Amino acid sequence: MSPHALDAVTFGEMMGMFMATSPGPLHRVRGYELALAGAEANVVTGLARLGHRVGWVGKVGADPIGQFAVEQLAAEGVDVSLVGVDDTAPTGFQLKSMAQGGDPEVVYFRKNSAGSRLAPTEAADTYLAGARHLHLTGIPLALSETTRTFAFHAVEVARSAGATISFDPNLRPALWHSEAEMTAVINDMAHRCDWVMPGLAEGVLLTGAATESGVAEHYLQQGVSRVVIKDGCRGSALHTADGVWRRPVFPVTVVDTVGAGDGFAAGLISAHLDGLAPDAALARASAVGALATTSPGDKDGLPTRTALEAFLAAARPHCEPTRRKGTVSAWNSR
């Protein structure tokens, strides 16, 4: 693949998601609808809908759920040429309740899944080296030693190729042996990336800092160039060595909060690829994240570029963004 054949690449585990078609405890629900799940798949779908050339790397099982997942991603315009099929391990899946107040119950069935068997290959190296940007989350770091090895190797490949790298810790404590292991491995990865985008509670847990500024300072001192901290309904902030930019949330009717962070990441990466200034970048990220919560599926609310532009033109945040010391060039630099 020629240099920069793709704008962005990500990798991880895709799963089938059985969404309850009626409210109530999962063990009492009698109807489910099959959809696609997976944090990285959500991000790459969001980027594809915004018009970027993107690819996803991973493995699925030789089963109907795996075939469904690959077809769904391909239908969004995502390149799936590096998706492998494992004949001996199943595609993971999850059960998801109909959200009550925006926060659904989710139960995972992913142990020893095909997705946990993703390992480095020469073909994957070539593919990763052909992208302008690499995005990853903390989930592959927790799934297995194999996927953890792939993740660290992928970052080395992307760095050598001159790509920018973003990292969403996306903490899943249930997948880790201990909190100490989770913190050590996640921070090891974070320090190797250009930008890190934790939720505030995640950042506090990972760094031991008590405040947003403390979390940001921890990662900036470790060489991370941009720290983007999400704080739910209180908005988000972008910290660099040059300053801080803040953006409140956009008011929307929340149906399901799952996938909001993935939408935010897609918007932020899209803004980076388009060379937007910090204020506009946070606005795009916040808008995509907000729209992601307006539908029951993890990715159903992710907008096209036309829909996003219409939303931004019509919507108004709760207050104006603020900036301290920062310059426009700070976002466009590495």
UniProtKB/TrEMBL annotation:
<protein>
    <submittedName>
        <fullName>2-dehydro-3-deoxygluconokinase</fullName>
        <ecNumber>2.7.1.45</ecNumber>
    </submittedName>
</protein>
<feature type="domain" description="Carbohydrate kinase PfkB">
    <location>
        <begin position="8"/>
        <end position="304"/>
    </location>
</feature>
<dbReference type="InterPro" id="IPR002173">
    <property type="entry name" value="Carboh/pur_kinase_PfkB_CS"/>
</dbReference>
<keyword id="KW-0418">Kinase</keyword>
<dbReference type="InterPro" id="IPR029056">
    <property type="entry name" value="Ribokinase-like"/>
</dbReference>
<dbReference type="InterPro" id="IPR011611">
    <property type="entry name" value="PfkB_dom"/>
</dbReference>
<comment type="similarity">
    <text>Belongs to the carbohydrate kinase PfkB family.</text>
</comment>
<dbReference type="GO" id="GO:0005524">
    <property type="term" value="F:ATP binding"/>
</dbReference>
<keyword id="KW-0808">Transferase</keyword>
<dbReference type="Pfam" id="PF00294">
    <property type="entry name" value="PfkB"/>
</dbReference>
<keyword id="KW-0067">ATP-binding</keyword>
<keyword id="KW-0547">Nucleotide-binding</keyword>
<dbReference type="InterPro" id="IPR050306">
    <property type="entry name" value="PfkB_Carbo_kinase"/>
</dbReference>
<dbReference type="GO" id="GO:0008673">
    <property type="term" value="F:2-dehydro-3-deoxygluconokinase activity"/>
</dbReference>
